[in-house]
Predict the structure.
Amino acid sequence: MDEECTPPAGPEPKRPRRAERNGRKRKQPRKVSPEYLENSALHYLERFASSAANLKRVLMRKVMLSASVHDTDPDEGAAWVDALIERYQRAGLLDDGAYAAMRARSINRQGGPERAIRAKLAAKGVAAEHVDAAVDELREDVGGDPDMAAAVALARRRGFGPFRRPSLSAKPLPPEERRMKELAAMARAGFSFDTATRVIDAERPEDLDEDMAAFP
């Protein structure tokens, strides 16, 4: 009696992409032109503040996609992008100094220390002189230690130190264990041990206001 032969297994079928699973075709990248890049840049700036280098990266991604799909000339596209960036800088639509100052204030209010401000601005391609000027301006605006102000903002938002809220857990953490977890969170956010302990160990929020006011 002949044995039943099992056909060799073929390659597993490819999983459909998310757009295909949702019944939508994946959108093909557009062919770039000066007009398309202009419209893309204005649309981006309507939604987001941007440094010159960051907007250039956004537009160059479109240039490279167009080159790969439509065989357009990437050097020609790069020249269009450079001309657009220079024109926007002359017109004041792109101002890295103003952008750096705005982002520094925003990051500080959200609880980011100077280290985070410098890292995030550098990642957006902002020159060091603009970063330094933004940090100096922030010190004047805060009227105290910017890192202390950011640490207080983070502690208030997260309920650390003098901003602790009553625990709703049936088994709340012991005070020292909770303190150590809060210090660890502050360290992960980029604060020094000295700044973190000053905030976490403060007895009252008013004590922190006095600390910030004492900054020369």
Residues 52-70 form the longest helix (19 residues). The mean pLDDT is 88.
